[in-house]
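Sequence of Beta-glucosidase (Streptosporangium sandarakinum).
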Amino acid sequence: MFLWGTATASYQIEGAVSEDGRGVSVWDTFAGEPGRVRDGHTGEVACDHYHRWPEDVELMAGLGVNSYRFSVAWPRVQPTGSGPVNQAGLDFYDRLVDALCARDIVPAVTLFHWDLPQELEDRGGWLDRDTAHRFAEYAAVVADRLADRVPMWITLNEPFVHMVFGYALGTHAPGRTLLLDALPVAHHQLLGHGLATAALRERGAGRVLITNNCTPVRAASADPADVAAAHAYDTLHNRLFNDPVLLGKYPDMSAYGVRLDCVRDGDLDLISAPLDGLGINYYNPTRIAAPSGEGLPFTDAGITGYPTTAFGWPVVPDGLRELLTGLKARYGDALPPVYVTENGCSQHDEPGPDGTVDDRARIDYLDGHIAALDRARAEGVDVRGYYVWSLLDNFEWAEGYHQRFGLVHVDFATGRRTPKASYHWLRERLAERTGADAGPREP
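Predicted 3D structure, token representation.
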């Protein structure tokens, strides 16, 4: 069946950061440092999903989705990133998976959505090759507990974004500012993916994927300098994380003075082990111009002429079709089935006088992107799932609680959940589509 779902991430919704044996994550540390997160917000409580998860499962059931993508918090399972397992943390995810299965909602587990245990970061984090091996051990622990009921596993979420914002630019945890010297983070995350894939397979896990954030890249002009810069950006954003997984090799980056000296014999064999699908997160295309002196071989020139989200991101629905058909053209038979594992928009959503939340802009956004998804499938791209980001308004990283992506409004003072107009619209849309349009059948 085609998977129509919604998605969340552990640090963004769970809260309970110091309960039941959970260890400290890099996001706990980062959010606790003055000036790191807007208005000093933290994920200490977030949506309180750790305590209110039964209510959230009922919201999913009411929405009519048949899958839920969520992430496991590594420090909740292994407080220091290695060694002893926190059984109370595993028990939480065990209860959640059982409840999803009871509601016929397919659990799709992401193992890493950026909340690295702080103790591993203190040893070097993803700059250190050993973190990849610790990640595989953690993957094995989670699979030992959940693989009998979880048919879909995602190793990493958006390794490009974690590398760039966390290690190159410092706007996300752990807050390092290494620019291109952050590139070993790319390889060590991908090596962790390869090692974790092997560990998952050994434990009978079903489908194994990686989720990459991808963007169609457009040159700002026909000027050769802009075209070359766009190629550089496409290489570093898209190909650096897709080529090793799908083709077993890194793209040539020598023109940018980039070398990955950390790659060892056999690494790419592990990284390119066959996958059951490729997760793709899409938000917008990117327009690139020649570098302007920031130490990078490109400049983001911005996209104009389109409506924007509250984040200021351009709303370009056909960019999703462009991205998916472009992946098929680039990788051909090497491209496995694709799952759109995130797609959504932030808006300034607040309840009106009658208590309802009218988020018409989000309805238009989703309607346009689902139509673009249909066009990509009609053009021959094997897409097998679509997940709306996000089920709930949540802690939006460095923006704190200022950006609302949810189908469900959350009052962060009380935790009260209010389904928005987009929730009701999507429920009706899914009721219309699920029977007649199931998409390509799962093997």
